[in-house]
TrEMBL record:
One of its GO terms (biological process) is ADP-L-glycero-beta-D-manno-heptose biosynthetic process. It is an enzyme of class 2 (transferase). It comes from Sulfuricurvum kujiense (strain ATCC BAA-921 / DSM 16994 / JCM 11577 / YK-1). The gene is hldE. Residues 10-304 form the Carbohydrate kinase PfkB domain. PANTHER family: BIFUNCTIONAL PROTEIN HLDE (PTHR46969). The active site is at residue 266. This is Bifunctional protein HldE. Catalyzes the ADP transfer from ATP to D-glycero-beta-D-manno-heptose 1-phosphate, yielding ADP-D-glycero-beta-D-manno-heptose.
């Protein structure tokens, strides 16, 4: 996961951009003019929709995104340009076609229930001049990109000419193309790396009823051969993802709680592309996409997912490694800020934790019980030597951090080399600062930056110093 945190691949998205517009309000009466509800609008929100939701997901994961699309020369088009600019996505590849309506879908929500949707959009195929402009844009930038996504929502941008031109340009540059397909005839996507249809879409496109492993494999092979794909994929909702290149593999997923499947397909193709761009194999990228989708379906509405959220999800399934829980200072500062915004109570403690023993474990378990997330500041090797003398630590900082991060009670470990964790505590600003009971009546470094200080009593006779003494004496506990 650390490799993904450090990567910021450039991904090119070609597709149907739209605006999702929400009118939120309440309803307490029926109109005297007609038997319809009267909604008192309290607020309006807009988010990027269609291929824009793929873009939002990529930006949330840390990718640098370029986009090629055709929009109208209208007010909604201006709004869309502004929305892309706000999230730092360039608009050089957006073609304004006169007379075309930029897609905007407006939903009226009363008491959290959608009661009406009305659309303003053009659904006819874009003009030949616009097709040429999109393909020319792709040809001019594709060499600088790591991967290409075609997000087809059937609104007229991904014509046969655009799909063919984009795939040809990408293949010429040695870049993979991932496609979220639309319709029943997928032949226009021939030559892509893979497609991401769901089971229903794949059944309609192949004419194969998918109801067991045999029919699933048959559909995967049909898609692979018909569209000359390097890898064939079908998403299976709560059953995960199936792929076929040289053989068929299934990657199951576990969504703890499903609130809304809106946008899950956008999250799958975005996370797959991100993982592949970072050098993961398809067998590594598929579970990553599964986990991303599992996080998103636990949210309301079209949603995005961050690497930290995927990391937390994997940890909850006990599928994460210790490495994923060891953070740099900058990472832990950003993470603690996000956690507090999410309403999580952050607990911080620190120490050398040289030879881990039962006293440490019980101390950390009690510390974790005070909040939702426990961050442990770990003294570096040089810092331990300053505190304990030249013969310490017994275990290196890398070993100590890895073992600490493996404990169920510890969520994150961060190393510090300073004499005290003053700056670490200042920047984390934990809800609760935990120290040992030997600090009773003493000043605690960084206490002024925490909302609350709690002292935990140590287990009698359990310490690293005592453990080393017994080893030197050749005695047992």
């Amino acid at each position: 996961m650390r490799r993904l945190h450090d990567s910021h691949p450039r991904i090119l998205v070609i597709g149907d951009l739209m605006i999702d517009h929400y009118l939120w309000g309440g309803c307490e009466r029926i109109s005297p003019e007609a038997p319809v509800q009267v909604v008192d609008i309290a607020r309006e929100t807009t988010v990027l929709g269609g291929a824009g939701n793929v873009i939002n997901n990529l930006v949330a994961l840390g990718a640098r995104v370029s986009v090629g699309a055709v929009i109208g020369d209208d007010e909604n088009g201006e709004e869309l340009l502004s929305m892309l600019g706000i999230i730092g996505v360039g608009t050089d590849g957006l073609i304004r076609q006169a007379g075309r309506k930029t897609s905007k879908k407006s939903r009226i929500i009363a008491s959290n229930q959608q009661i009406l949707r009305y659309d303003k959009e053009s659904k006819d195929s874009i003009a030949p001049e616009s097709e040429n402009a999109v393909v020319s844009y792709v040809e001019s930038v594709v060499k600088e990109c790591d991967i290409v996504i075609i997000s087809d929502y059937g609104k007229g941008v991904i014509t046969d000419a655009v799909a063919g031109g984009v795939i040809a340009a990408a293949k010429s540059a040695g870049k993979k193309v991932l496609v979220d397909p639309k319709g029943k005839d997928y032949r226009k996507y021939r030559g892509a790396y893979l497609l991401t249809p769901n089971k229903k879409e794949a059944s309609e496109a192949t004419g194969i009823a998918i109801n067991d492993d045999a029919s699933l494999k048959k559909a995967l092979l049909n898609l692979k051969e018909t569209c000359t794909l390097e890898c064939s994929m079908i998403t299976l909702s709560e059953d995960g993802i199936a792929i076929y290149d040289e053989s068929m593999r299934r990657f199951p997923t576990v969504a703890k709680e499903v609130f809304d499947v809106t946008g899950a397909g956008d999250t799958v193709i975005a996370s797959l592309s991100f993982a592949l761009s970072c050098g993961l194999s398809i067998d590594e990228a598929a579970p990553f996409a599964n986990h991303a989708a599992a996080v998103v379906v636990g949210k309301i509405g079209s949603a995005t997912v961050t690497l930290s959220e995927i990391e937390a999800y994997e940890s909850s399934l006990h599928q994460s490694t210790s490495d994923m829980h060891i953070k740099t200072k900058d990472e832990i500062y950003a993470l603690s800020e996000r956690l507090k915004k999410e309403g999580k109570k952050v607990v911080f403690t620190n120490g050398c934790f040289d030879i881990l023993h039962v006293g440490h474990v019980k101390y950390l378990q009690e510390a974790k019980s005070y909040g939702d997330v426990l961050i442990v500041g770990l003294n570096s090797d040089s810092s331990v030597r300053e505190l304990k003398g030249p013969t310490r630590p017994v275990n290196t900082e890398a070993d100590r951090a890895y073992i600490l991060a493996a404990l169920e009670s510890v969520d994150y470990v961060v190393l510090f080399s300073e004499e005290t964790p003053h700056d670490l505590i200042k920047n984390i600003a934990p809800d609760i600062l935990v120290k040992g009971g030997d600090y009773e009546g003493k000043a605690v470094v960084g206490a002024e930056f925490a909302k609350e200080l709690r002292l935990v009593q140590f287990v009698d006779g359990k310490s690293t110093t005592a453990t080393i003494a017994r080893i030197n004496e050749g005695t047992t506990c």
